[in-house]
Amino acid sequence: MKIQRLEAILSNFSGCKVAVLGDFFLDLYIQLDRSLSEFSLETHKEAFQAVDWRGQPGAAGVVTNNLVALGAQTAAIGYCGQDGNGFTLRQALQERQVSLEYFLQTPDRFTPTYTKPMMQEVDDTNIELNRIDLINRSPNPDSLNEALAENVLKAIEVYDGILVVEQVQQDGYGTLSPAVRKALTKASTLHPEKPVMIDSRHFAADYKNVSLKMNLSEAVKALNVLQGEDFKGFPNETQAASRCAQALWHKNEQPVFITLGAEGILGMAGAEPFHHPGVQVNGPIDIVGAGDSVLAGIGLARCAGATPEEAAYIGNLVGSITIQQIGTTGIATQSDIITRHNQYQRQIEQE
After folding, report:
1. Exposed e or buried b per residue across 233-266, where buried means at least 16 C-beta atoms within 10 angstroms of its C-beta
2. For the chain, how far is it from start to end, CA to CA, in angstroms?
3. Less CB within 10 Å around the terminal CB: N or C of the chain?
4. pLDDT attached to residue 233
């Protein structure tokens, strides 16, 4: 991509309004200090001592974080419980200028939370301990699913597109359900000019008439469901992704984007697949939230007028930026994208 074209797309970002539907988790980071540990007289175990904590939007919230950082307006479509974690999550979203017009509070659910304790050891190393997951373990009430579906149809009338993050493994236990998927199909059908893009860990094969963004394992899983076979033994990742992209494109006739880690992004939006090789980065990386940042980059670019291949290029750059931000779910800015584009072009010239 020429720098002039990239700058033209980026210049449209601030005028875009993109809604994010999905599982909004609270990422609750608790900083512990080993040097302050106490001995519990009751349990006879070490009692960890917290010295700091922060709550930030996780899962679908990573997408809204990146949209805001890239200059777009955004809204959350989802729910939280009427609890303390819900208060913290809503406050964190509002601080990031995310509209909560379509974000529900319900006494029937508690706020999904990933608690992430970090231990500062006596030698000054900071180690992430076992994560503690708080997830609803029962199906949503029908009334909640219907309210979420209604908000999807309201949002598509106001926003330029909808990006979807489906995290929860049990269907209907999180934000997504058959009723909400039906609303997404209807939204895409009513407004084919507005991108509706899905990132689903477990149910990609169940969506109709929408664009899909996924990693390779999710794509193979969807292909197996659709074709009733267990496809294995592809010669390489690129060929596997190409096979999956073609099948998913023919099912929905909507753009498909498959992330390949260090191998970049492969996609399809017509007769032939396209592939952007991975951006070479140096030093340690942290892939937590990388897929969500790629979704934000691709989806916003599509809303800003980019072709699917151009959007994949931008998503590829965004992902390469966020993986270099250690210990947090990273974000990218427009200036970061310009800098990484120049680095990537030099890489391509040398290959």
Report:
1. eeeebbebbbbbbbbbbebbebbbbbbbeebbbb
2. 16
3. C
4. 67
Which structural domains are found in the chain, ordered by start?
A: 3-350 (3.40.1190.20)
Contact indicator for 160, 17 with CB cutoff of 8 Å: yes
Torsion-angle region of 305 (φ positive above 0: left; ψ -120 to 50: alpha; else: beta) = left
- Distance CA(341)–CA(351), nearest Å, equals 15
Question: What is the C-alpha to C-alpha distance for residues 210 and 193, in angstroms, rounded to an integer?
Answer: 12
CA–CA gap between residue 242 and residue 248 (Å, rounded): 10
Amino acid residing at 139: P
- List CB contacts of 164: < 8 A, sequence separation 6 or more: 20, 21, 22, 176, 184, 196, 197, 198, 199, 200, 210
Question: What pLDDT score was predicted for residue 327?
Answer: 67
Q: Per the confidence metrics, is the pTM higher than 0.85?
A: yes
In sign, the C-alpha dihedral spanning 307, 255, 101, 64 is: negative
Q: Find out whether 285 and 294 touch, Cβ atoms under 8 Å.
A: no
Task: With H, G, I as helix, E, B as strand and everything else as coil, classify residue 346.
Answer: helix
10 exposed, middle or buried (CB, 10 Å; 0-12, 13-18, 19+)?
buried
Could you give the C-alpha distances from 128 to 67, 119, 121, 135, 154, in angstroms and in order?
A: 27, 6, 11, 20, 40
- Report the SS3 class of residue 3: helix
Neighbours of 142 (CB within 10 A): 11
Low-confidence ranges of the chain (pLDDT < 70): 229, 231-233, 327-328
Non-local CB neighbours of 308 within 8 Å, separated by 6+ positions: 255, 257, 267, 269, 274, 302
**CA pair distance 174, 110, nearest whole angstrom:** 11
Residues 216 and 248: their CA atoms lie apart, in Å, by 12
- Of residues 138, 130, 131, the one with CA closest to residue 109: 138
Task: Note the residue count of the chain.
Answer: 351
Which token pair is 36?
Answer: 């302050």
Q: Which amino acid is at 98?
A: V
